[in-house]
């Protein structure tokens, strides 16, 4: 069974600092994908970044990067230069067949001025 | 933004009544999903569809049924609502085969069963 673990229920960071949100996964699949989604207080789910298991380089999307360590089965999200608008819940997810997703329980990030 | 519309957005219903939530997409994506979100659980997959009339169960399918008679519509039905089905329900779509295959989510439906 797929499992995603996010061990940080909440994180605090000051504006303009970098922050790392942890995610470990458990899968027996050889090929898989890892996603991060952001959920602001308004409730919508916003796709941030994707990493494929065979991608040789860590994924980056603007201020978001994914620190992918396959041997450790970790896929940590790094947000550089945090902004107030980054305050939200962040979910890590593992892709299974038919692009179904198994989500972690999430990390609440609060960015302070 | 991906064209996904969930209806209704909010609903309060009584225990034992049937409830149907609708998800409508304008993206012509083949794959559609229903997730529920509860505090402390993240999002969990209820059912998904990989084509018209092709559906399968997810992690938390008990008490739910789905139907997909057209590419654009995916219905989630609670045959007899229970208080444990109070939740926020998200529909998602995916176009498997593209580079990232990310799922795009609707705005969510907040369902309260009293």
Mean pLDDT over the full residue set of chain A:
94
Contiguous uncertain segments of 5+ residues of chain A: none
* Series of secondary-structure elements of chain B, N-terminal to C-terminal: EEEEEEEEEEE
Helix content of chain B: under 10%
What amount of the residues of chain B lies in strands? over 45%
Report the principal-axis shape of chain B. globular
The global form of chain A is globular
> What's the main sheet of chain A like?
6 strands, mixed
- Major β-sheet profile of chain B: 7 strands, mixed
Helix content of chain A: under 10%
Question: How many helical stretches of chain B?
Answer: 0
Distance between the termini of chain A: 41 Å
- Class per helix and strand makeup of chain B: mainly beta
Q: Per DSSP, what share of the residues of chain A sits in E-state strands of 2 or more residues?
A: over 45%
Computed over alpha carbons, the radius of gyration of chain B is 13 Å
Q: Which stretches of chain B are poorly predicted, pLDDT < 50 over at least 5 residues?
A: none
Taking all Cα atoms into account, the compactness measure Rg of chain A is 13 Å
Output the helix-strand order of chain A: EEEEEEEEEEEE
Assembly type of the chains comes to: heterodimer
What is the rounded distance between the termini of chain B? 34 Å
């Amino acid at each position: 069974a797929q499992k995603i673990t996010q061990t940080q229920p909440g994180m605090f960071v000051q504006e303009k600092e970098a922050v790392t949100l942890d995610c470990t996964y458990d899968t027996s699949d050889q090929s898989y994908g890892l996603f991060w989604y952001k959920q602001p207080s308004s409730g919508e789910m916003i796709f941030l970044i994707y990493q494929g298991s065979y991608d040789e380089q860590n994924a980056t999307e603007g201020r978001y990067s994914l620190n992918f360590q396959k041997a450790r089965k970790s896929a940590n999200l790094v947000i550089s230069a945090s902004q107030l608008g980054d305050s939200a819940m962040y979910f890590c997810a593992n892709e299974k067949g038919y692009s179904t997703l198994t989500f972690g329980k999430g990390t609440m990030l609060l960015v302070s001025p | 933004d991906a064209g996904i519309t969930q209806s209704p957005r909010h609903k309060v219903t009584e225990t034992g009544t049937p409830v149907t939530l609708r998800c409508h997409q304008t993206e012509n994506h083949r794959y559609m999903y229903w997730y529920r979100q509860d505090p402390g659980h993240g999002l969990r997959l209820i059912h998904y569809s990989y084509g018209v009339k092709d559906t399968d169960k997810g992690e938390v399918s008990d008490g739910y049924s789905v139907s997909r008679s057209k590419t654009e519509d995916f219905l989630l039905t609670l045959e007899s609502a229970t208080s444990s089905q109070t939740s926020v329900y998200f529909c998602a779509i995916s176009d498997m085969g593209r580079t990232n295959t990310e799922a795009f989510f609707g705005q969510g439906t907040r369902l309260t069963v009293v």
